Amino acid sequence: MVEYTIRPARTPDVVGIQELIQPMVDENILLGKGLVVLYEAVQEFVVAETPDGDLVGCGALHVLWRDLGEVRTIASSPKVRGQGVGHAMLDRLMVDARGLGLERLFCLTFETEFFGRHGFKAVEEQIVDSDTYREMLHSPDAGTAEFLDLPWVKPNTLGNTRMILQL
């Protein structure tokens, strides 16, 4: 079993985060993210780091609205898969979400069993009211567009399941 500490990500971690997610991008489990996108979002990430400084996991929490956040980009190193790192990342993000005052967490995923073990439920219906939806249309964030299920992001979301968790 690998030892690790979960901590907020820092800019020196960004290349390592990209290296962590790349195998899952190659398997079409996660969407690829350029370095500039990761640097812009570094404050949303937490990482799992071993005592010798290796990054073995990452995950991000993006606030979508006053009561709603999205869990993004949870990944663990192939050398630690099955050892609970991904679950620890999600647990940390859930604690952080509560600390921000969020009441619900959203994810768009192929990994329904993983998220289901944490209480996420698949949803088909619109998750926000129509006034909030109209306000969220102003966001330049591609992930928000995926959340809103806008036509121009459909190729990115095909086959994914929309899931929600009441905190």
Report on the architecture of this protein.
The chain is of the alpha+beta class and 167 residues long. It has one domain: Gcn5-related N-acetyltransferase (GNAT) (Aminopeptidase), CATH 3.40.630.30. The chain contains 7 helices and 7 strands. It has a 7-stranded mixed sheet with strand order 1-2-3-4-5-7-6, with helices on both faces. The mean pLDDT is 87. Keywords: Acyltransferase, Transferase. This is Amino-acid N-acetyltransferase. GO terms for molecular function: L-glutamate N-acetyltransferase activity. InterPro entries: Acyl_CoA_acyltransferase, GNAT_dom, NH2A_AcTrfase.
Helices and strands in order:
Blueprint: E1 5-8, H1 14-26, H2 35-40, E2 45-49, E3 55-65, E4 68-76, H3 85-99, E5 104-109, H4 112-116, E6 121-122, H5 130-136, H6 142-148, H7 154-157, E7 161-166
